[in-house]
Amino acid sequence: MKVRVISIPVLDQDKALAFYTDKLGFVKKHDIPLGEGGRWLTVVAKEEQEGTEVLLEPSPHGFEPAKTYQKALFDAGIPYTQFNVDDVREEYERLVNLGVTFSVKPTAMGTVKIAVFDDTCGNNIQIVELL
Q1: Residue 61 pLDDT more than 80?
Q2: Each residue of 47-59: pLDDT tens digit?
Q3: How confident is the model over 12-21, as pLDDT tens digits?
Q4: Which domain of life is it from (predicted)?
Q5: CA-based Rg of the chain, rounded to a whole angstrom?
Q6: Neighbouring residues of 22: CB distance < 8 A, sequence distance ≥ 6
Q7: How many independent structural domains does the chain possess?
């Protein structure tokens, strides 16, 4: 088995695309209309464009359990997913300068350093540096 796509529920695909490309530095890979306003919309790391895709999946309309789960994670401060970075402090400073809001500043935890930010689309996202 191989991981080719991970899914992140987003409240607004256009807003998510702007955030994930303009702020986080991902590049758009696929943008395929699926009907009813939804799209198969993926982004990838600029440095690994053939790597794992992040599917910016519309938070299911009319399926309250998914919305409840996403909101509960966000309200509890629990990250929906994490992205690895080479230097958490450097990435934190870059993102803060772009207006990204962090709920957890760079913090060493054993063999990793982490920070957590709001992706403006309903999710906390953690960045991780392996020490």
Answers
A1: no
A2: 999 999 999 998 8
A3: 999 999 999 9
A4: Bacteria
A5: 15
A6: 98
A7: 1
